Amino acid sequence: MTAVRAGRRTVEVHRPDKVLFPGGGGAKEYTKADLVAYHQEIAPFMLPHLKGRPLMLERHPDGLGGPMFMQKNVQDHYPDWIHRVEVAKEGGTVLHPVCDDTATLVYLVDQACLTLHRWLARVTPDGSLGHPDRMVFDLDPATDDFGPVRDAARLLRELLDELRLPAALMTTGSRGLHVVVPLDGHHDFDEVHTFAGDVADTLAAAHPDRLTTRARKKDRGDRLYLDIQRNAYAQTVVAPFTVRAAPGAPVAVPVSWEQLDDPQLGARRWTIADAADQARTKPWSGMSHGGRALGPARGRLDALRG
Q1: Cα–Cα distance measured from residue 194 to residue 154, given in angstroms and rounded to the nearest whole number
Q2: What's the number of CA atoms in the CB half-sphere (13 Å) around residue 124?
Q3: Fewest C-beta in 10 Å: which of 86, 173, 176, 306?
Q4: For the segment 2-17, what is each residue's pLDDT rounded down to a tens digit?
Q5: Within a 10 A sphere around the Cβ of 153, how many other Cβ atoms?
Q6: Cα–chain center distance at 23
Q7: Model pLDDT for residues 272-291, shown as the tens digit of each residue
Q8: Among 218, 176, 52, which Cα is nearest to 119's?
Q9: Using CA of residue 139, residue 142, residue 146, residue 150, what is the dihedral sign?
């Protein structure tokens, strides 16, 4: 065990030399200590995307290749200084962890939490859950070919531009891209989910040979899936700068629209070795700080759909 200073707190890290990402096949080996160091470095860039948001934790107690489980509820042994939020579910509530500081990041790594999945809404000052302030389109390709992902991102941006909705890009660390639209938080989950579905349906109808909104893989063929399901209540998306459970420790990383033209860009372009370098370029600096209302965009979309 080793003691790690994280902000104003000291966090105990157990078995820091434990290998969570085995090497081999061209992938580097990374230990729990490596993951802790990464989260300490990335914290100033990552925390603004996590603060106030309920989390679902993807835990791999024995690292890659071992068992994995998703955790929503805060466990009894978690320290009191980790923030929590109680969220309604059918038949009860869930007490989610909230990551508001570096110490919480380090503690979750010690718990072998590799990936943080965040809600698209934040906790309000009165402690309740607000409306979503993000709308996310997940561009999920049928193969590992990244070309269709680039094309779909450009097509979606063109449509969002027509709707006058600014959007930002993020690699998923897996296979595709996320297109993220900032919202003003005045629309509930059902409204946002329905609107995102109508946008995706409109785009797929215009390019039926390339894009689909069919959720079943057998119905997609070789078309890219425009996934909007993460916008529903109680759903989550991978957080910016979170690590993905794949060889080499790839990271979900915000990128600029200009980087879409980079031939080196791919869903797993960055790992814990260089994601902080990308963060320092402030790729989302051009994104509007104030989220948009969907009312005017709804009118424009309905006009386009006839």
Answers
A1: 22
A2: 9
A3: 306
A4: 999 999 999 999 999 9
A5: 22
A6: 25
A7: 999 999 999 999 987 767 89
A8: 52
A9: negative
